[in-house]
Design brief:
Blueprint: H1 25-36, H2 40-57, E1 65-68, H3 73-84, E2 89-95, H4 101-114, E3 118-122, H5 125-137, H6 145-162, E4 166-168, H7 173-176, H8 181-184, H9 188-198, H10 212-220, E5 225-227, H11 237-248, H12 261-275, H13 280-289, H14 295-303, H15 309-322, H16 327-335, H17 348-352, H18 355-365, H19 371-378
Parallel strand pairs: 1-2, 1-4, 2-3, 4-5
Helix pairs in contact: 1-19, 3-4, 3-11, 5-9, 12-15
Pfam family, one: Asn_synthase
InterPro entries: Asn_synthase, N-acetyl_sugar_amidoTrfase, Rossmann-like_a/b/a_fold
Protein name: N-acetyl sugar amidotransferase
Length: about 375
């Protein structure tokens, strides 16, 4: 198995290539992003400029930004950060029926202590259940796509209804990296197709769907912009955890994104056991390049299981029961052929074949160049069908 000389990206990652020094193209992408969005003095200045813009846009309004919260460390610390800089955020949480009790309590503790209003958007459970089951029946790798798309859609939906122009999200490419499109790409067109083909016909009345048209309208007409503060600021996850525990009695929930139990099942059970995919290779590699951990530590972590077999089986049983899947139904899903992201229709080619023409639009939507756009240029992003 060939492994990147600088990180722990390896040959199991689709589209990976290595140069004569054993350095992968994923590593080069990570280095480019770090160079494009420097921290330190420049990053601090860029962030403070955005703070001024947000305060000006929110003048005479109740809120000047939205912070998406999950109860995880990244989003919890983001509330703390926004308060530190004198911003008046509205915290927005998506409830898909799988939030852990620890995550719910974390959100309550932080928002209560800081006096930040919280809006929880609840999707009708029959709708999200039908969508998650449909993605599993479709044999998709990243079955938590309906949640990911709904989180983004909810942020924009609330921003439009409240007249808020800035959305803050806790994404951090220095700790998360860039997942290959073959593992996680998703859009509304593909979700609708999979739901029609594999769902039970439950109409999506409360599920928030961010179509390409709605996204463009939100950015061009309503002036809503997506901001990632950790692109600019010196953020260290472990330090943030310690501070949140001390100041807010925040509790740790285990692994990366394990604050949501379906996400935990997707990352720690479904992907590695059915597809042989370990997303930690991407996350840990990014952390090595940002010097949060050593390469040796990352390699050692990959040798360890996501959790004990007993814990993973309990998680699987919980998800199976909550989705109303019998043992026979789950077994049929589990033994069915694994599919690829691009086996089903999507907007991928339409969007990324038009990236150059869409650059003026991207500047309206984001305060940064999305990593997927940079990846499209560097990783030869042509989707492959099976």
């Amino acid at each position: 198995m060939k492994v990147c000389a600088k990180g722990v990206w390896d040959e199991t990652i689709p589209g990976i290539v290595f140069d004569e020094n054993g350095v992968s193209n994923f590593c080069r992408l990570q280095e480019k992003m770090m160079a494009d969005y420097p921290r330190g003095t420049q990053g601090q200045a860029d962030w403070e400029k955005l703070v001024v813009e947000m305060k000006a846009a929110g003048k005479n309004r109740r809120y000047d930004c939205i912070v998406g919260v999950s109860g995880g460390v990244d989003s919890s610390y983001l509330l703390h950060l926004a308060h530190q800089y004198g911003l008046r955020p509205l915290a927005v949480n998506l409830d898909n029926g799988f939030n852990s009790e620890i995550a719910v309590q974390n959100i309550y503790k932080v928002t209560s202590k800081l006096g930040i209003d919280l809006e929880t958007y609840v999707i009708d459970y029959e709708e999200i259940k039908d969508l998650l089951r449909a993605y599993m029946k479709a044999g998709m790798p990243w079955i938590d796509t309906p949640t990911d798309l709904a989180i983004k859609a909810t942020m924009y939906k609330v921003a439009r209804s409240e007249g808020i122009r800035y959305i803050l999200r806790g994404n951090d490419f220095r700790s998360e990296g860039k997942q290959p499109k073959e593992w996680t790409y998703a859009d509304a067109k593909q979700l609708r197709f999979i739901h029609r083909r594999f769902g039970a016909g439950v109409p999506l009345k409360t599920y928030p769907l961010l179509t390409l048209f709605t996204l463009v309208y939100s950015g061009l007409v309503r002036g809503i912009k997506d901001i990632r503060p950790y692109y600019y600021l010196a953020y260290k996850k472990q330090d943030a955890k310690q501070l949140m525990m001390e100041l807010y009695d925040w509790q740790d929930y285990g692994g990366h994104h394990h604050e949501n139990l379906f996400t935990k099942f997707s990352m720690a059970y479904w992907l590695p056991r059915k597809f042989g995919i370990d997303k930690r290779k991407i996350n840990l590699s990014a952390q090595v390049l940002s010097q949060a951990i050593s390469r040796e530590e990352a390699l050692a972590q990959l040798q360890r299981s996501f959790a004990t077999d007993e814990e993973l089986e309990l998680t699987r049983a919980y998800v199976q029961k909550k989705l109303d899947l019998s043992d026979q139904e789950f077994q049929q899903i589990w033994t069915a052929p694994a599919k690829k992201i691009f086996d089903y229709p999507s907007h991928y080619e339409l969007i990324f074949n038009s990236v150059r023409r869409l650059r003026p639009l991207l500047k309206k939507l984001y305060a940064f160049t999305p990593m997927s756009v940079s990846a499209n240029a560097m990783l030869d992003a042509k989707p492959q069908r099976s």
